[in-house]
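To whoever is on call:

I kicked off a structure prediction for a single chain this morning and the downstream step that reads the tokens threw a length-mismatch warning. I double-checked the sequence; it's 180 residues and nothing unusual in it as far as I can see. Pasting both halves so you can look.
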Amino acid sequence: MGAMRRRRCPRTLTAICLAGAAVAGVTACEPAAGGLSSVAVAVTTDKTTTSTLERLGFDVRWLSCTARIDEGKAGSASPKSPSPSGVATVDCQGETDSEQDITLKGKVTEERSGKCVRGDLIAKVDRKVVFRATVLGNCSGAPTRSPTRPPGHSPSEAPGATATVTVTVTVTATPDPPRK
């Protein structure tokens, strides 16, 4: 069993790296203000779904979510303009520690501060519905569409410089010992 896990680790690490690269690549295409961000919806849905599944007793090995903004479905004047009442289609795939498949699919109409999503979402583990939700997470925070400023800064002040930190991790797979 241990050998099986060692072989799965590189695939899991690769999946996580690819998901991270996809999130970084899509960021440039997101609306600056107003409307849903597909990146924010995907990341928040991933976080809140994982915590909900773990609260229900499932040990989540990994989960990766993608979101696509459905342009023009919220009655906006132009399909390209962001709409505060837009809709995102979410698709999540993952696996439990016991190698059961996890899926979550649905529509998200609101994402708040990385803490909650609202919409119509269905999660399944091994093809069995484990929950259907209209809210995942704690929606008491402010919506991410509202720009936030650090305390003590006026709205006319431009945001200051920030430091970007990059951490590179090298993983070396060790081969299994030869069988006798």
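Update from on-call: the warning came from a stale cache, not from the record. Cleared it. Sanity check on the structure: The chain has one domain: 2-74+82-137.
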